[in-house]
Write a structure and sequence with these properties.
The protein is an alpha/beta fold. Helix content is 50%, strand content 12%.
Length: 274
C-alpha cells in the first residue's frame, strides 16, 4: 500500500528520528511511504486554546496537503494529532461555515491512523519480534496518552505490541492511566497544576525501576522526558535516571541495528533518547 506520513510538527521539529523510524517500520512491512510536503501543524494547540479563527487556515492547509497526494492510508506517530483530525477539524470548519471543508476534513481523518492502530487494525501485526524484527532488551515503563485512550480508543494496542518485542521487560507503574500533565497549552496556562501532575508521573516511572518510559505521543514523552531529566539532576544517584523514548523507536530497533541506551553510547537530550 501507499502510505502518507503525517509526521506532525512536534516530531518534525523536535524528534525527526521518530519519523524516520516510523518510515522504517512501514517499509519493513512492504509499504511505499510518501511525504506530503505542504503539511505543517494540525492546529491542535490553536483549537485547544479556543482560537478557532486562527486554526481555520491551519486545518485548511492540512486538508489540502493530503488531498493533493494519492495514498491509501495516512499514518502518524502521535495519537493526539490523529485524534485532532477527526474530533476537531470538522468542528473548526463548521464553526467557520465551511461545510465543504468539514466534509473533506472528515474524509482525510477517516483514513488517518495512529502508528500502533495502523499496525494492528490494518496490517494485522500481532507479534513485533516475528513480523517487524523488533529487539529491545531493556526494562520499559509504558504511558498510555490521554488522547489515545479516550478519543482514539486505542485500548491495549500499543501495550500488546510492546509485550511482543524480544528482550523487552514491561514494568507496571502506579496510576498508569493518569494524565502526565502536558495537555498542550494546558501546561502553559496552568503550569502549577501541570508540574504537579508531571511530578506524580515521573515518580511512578522512577519507582518502576524501568530504564525507559515509552508511549505513542511525542508531546507527552517530551514533557515526561523533561521531568525525568530535571529529577535526575536534583536527586543524583548511582542508578541512571530513566529516559523517554517513542514507541516507534523501540519497534524499529533490531538486533542488527539496535537502539542504543546512554550506557551504550546513545545520545540523550532533554531527557529523551535520540
Amino acid at each position: 500500500m501507499k502510505i502518507a506520513l503525517f509526521a506532525t510538527c512536534i516530531v518534525d521539529a523536535m524528534y525527526p528520528e521518530v519519523a524516520r523510524d516510523t518510515v522504517s517500520i512501514l517499509e519493513r512491512l512492504g509499504h511505499t511511504v510518501i511525504f506530503p510536503e505542504q503539511q505543517a501543524c494540525c492546529g491542535q494547540m490553536h483549537i485547544n486554546s479556543g482560537k478557532f479563527g486562527q486554526a481555520y487556515p491551519v486545518v485548511k492547509n492540512h486538508v489540502e496537503a493530503f488531498e493533493d497526494a494519492s495514498w491509501d492510508y495516512a499514518v502518524a506517530p502521535s495519537g493526539s494529532c490523529v485524534a485532532s483530525l477527526g474530533h476537531q477539524h470538522p468542528m473548526v470548519a463548521q464553526h467557520k461555515g465551511d461545510e465543504d471543508l468539514a466534509t473533506r476534513a472528515t474524509q482525510i481523518a477517516d483514513r488517518t491512523y495512529e502508528l500502533a492502530q495502523f499496525l494492528t487494525d490494518v496490517c494485522g501485526v500481532t507479534n513485533a519480534t516475528e513480523e517487524l524484527g523488533s529487539y529491545f532488551p531493556h526494562a520499559v515503563a509504558y504511558h498510555p496518552s490521554c488522547h489515545g485512550m479516550r478519543l482514539l480508543q486505542l485500548g491495549d494496542r500499543q501495550r500488546d505490541l510492546l509485550e511482543t518485542v524480544e528482550g523487552l521487560e514491561l514494568q507496571p507503574i502506579e496510576h498508569e492511566d493518569s494524565c502526565c500533565g502536558f495537555g498542550g497549552t494546558f501546561s502553559v496556562k496552568n503550569s502549577g497544576v501541570s508540574s504537579a501532575m508531571l511530578g506524580d508521573k515521573v515518580e511512578a516511572v522512577i519507582s518502576s525501576q524501568a530504564d525507559v518510559c515509552t508511549g505513542g505521543d511525542a508531546s507527552c514523552l517530551m514533557h515526561i522526558g523533561g521531568g525525568l531529566s530535571r529529577q535526575s539532576r536534583l536527586t543524583p544517584s548511582a542508578r541512571t535516571a530513566p529516559v523517554a523514548v517513542h514507541l516507534a523507536r523501540i519497534l524499529a530497533s533490531t538486533k542488527d541495528n539496535p537502539l542504543r541506551m546512554p550506557a551504550e553510547g546513545g545520545q540523550v537530550t532533554g531527557g529523551s533518547l535520540r
